[in-house]
Amino acid sequence: MNLLFANDRRGTYPPSWYAETTPPLPPFAPLDGDRRADICIVGGGYTGLSAALHLAEAGRDVVLVEAHRVGFGASGRNGGQVGSGQRLHQDALERMLGDGPATRLWHLAEDARTLVSDLIARHDIACDLRPGIVYAECTARGTREAHAYAEKLRSDYDYDLLEPLTRGELQAIVGAPCYRGGVLDWGGSHLNPLAYALGLARAAERAGATIHEATLVERVDAGAVVVTDRGRIIADRVILAANGYLGGLERHVAARVMPINNYMVATEPLGERAASVLARDVAVADSRFVVNYFRLSPDGRLLFGGGESYGYRFPEDIRALVRKPLLKVFPQLSDVALTHAWGGTLAITRSRLPCLATPAPGIFSASGFSGHGVAMATLAGRVLAEAAQGDSTDFETFARIPSRPFPGGGAFRAPLLALAMAWYALRDTAGI
Question: What domains are there in the chain, each with its CATH number?
Answer without folding.
Answer: 3-78+194-258+350-417 (3.50.50.60), 129-187+259-347 (3.30.9.10)
